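Hi everyone,

Forwarding the result from last night's run.
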Amino acid sequence: MAVVGIAGAVLVTGDSGGGHLAANRAQLRKACDGTLPYRDLERLVRDERPGELAQHGTVLAPGQQSRSLLDCSLSWGDGHGVTVHAEALVSDVPQPVRTRDLLEPAGGHGTFVAPGTTGQYGKWGAWLVADCLGGLGGRVRPTTDLYVTARVTDGTDGADGADGADGTDGATAASGKPGRATALLGFRTAVHVANALTKAQHCGSGPLMTPTAVLDTDETHGAPGRGLRKCEWIDGSSLPGVASGTWTTLGDLQESTGLSACAGEWDAEKNAGERPRPKEWQITEVDAASWSGVLGRSAYNSYEREGHVPGWGAQQDKRPSEADAGSDTRQEDRVSAYSGRPQLALWARSVCGGRTTYHRVAVFPEIRLEDGETAVISGKDRARLSTAARTVLDRYLDAEDGWPASADCRDTTVLGEVEQWH
């Protein structure tokens, strides 16, 4: 039996019973408009039954009005198969890309990233975002952003697609996190599909680099994001306005041209016996992130849905200039334990690598509140937070080894502050 996808339909002929290896390999070469990486996936092809292929999308039927450039699934039974999806984005990236999503993906449980690829391994497999400066066809609205997902299963998965158990070549079934080899195969497939599509669409940009390794972002696996060079600007001894002492830094590992994130915190363990505990309202944590193009729009919209962009909440009637570091006119404010970890964020916009880019930095003061308690921040302490936030932004943008410098960011406009404790 052979199965062929025709504009969304599945055609089935013949019967099963073995002897299908050659036909299945030939099918793999042509499936999904020939976009799949044959050499990477060949080992998954089975002989016992014919492959089952379902596919549709505008690259297969150009006259279609579909949100998908390509939706394709190829299976050889017993958990062996590949599923890919590609679409021209006209709205936000359908993945979380806020600062903490980059630094602590999967809710802090960790996932895999492929350095040099803008994306992560998520619920539906490896995902990535790529540019198509020449424009992508198949949608009414023009777009230059390609989104691709790829999920490869090798027979070790359970019925729900979660792998085995050890986080090396198996995975944690409860979280759905794949093994390292499975994640790498997913990324390589996604990159191969993206490169095939951008070439066919005459995007005018070079191919993405095919990843040769993935990194586990879970800190229990060696904390690979600690002490990155791009985050060295976060230093308690040279960053004015923050608690003095030893700081520990964390950065995302994507090595992307489209986004980056760094965070630092005052290290209580390393400072024990050396430095006094910071006083209330002293800054003990900072973070900074940047997003370009569609990623910038997606991140900003994500924060906006929570009311965490300039122009919302208690700050809605204030202009950025009112956050002047020397202001003595600020009134005291109340901070509730129910507002989460209080932070003051500062937003800016630049042009980086020719693309509109949003930057967001945040400073987190030391505050100790029990459930139901409320603290009072004085006008002077509030002004100090503003001073520190602006200092952090300037230091981040000017850091020689930081992402903004590598992305050649310029023409920066400060957009305003957000008090994230209301």
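The chain is about 20% helix and 30% strand.

Cheers,
N.
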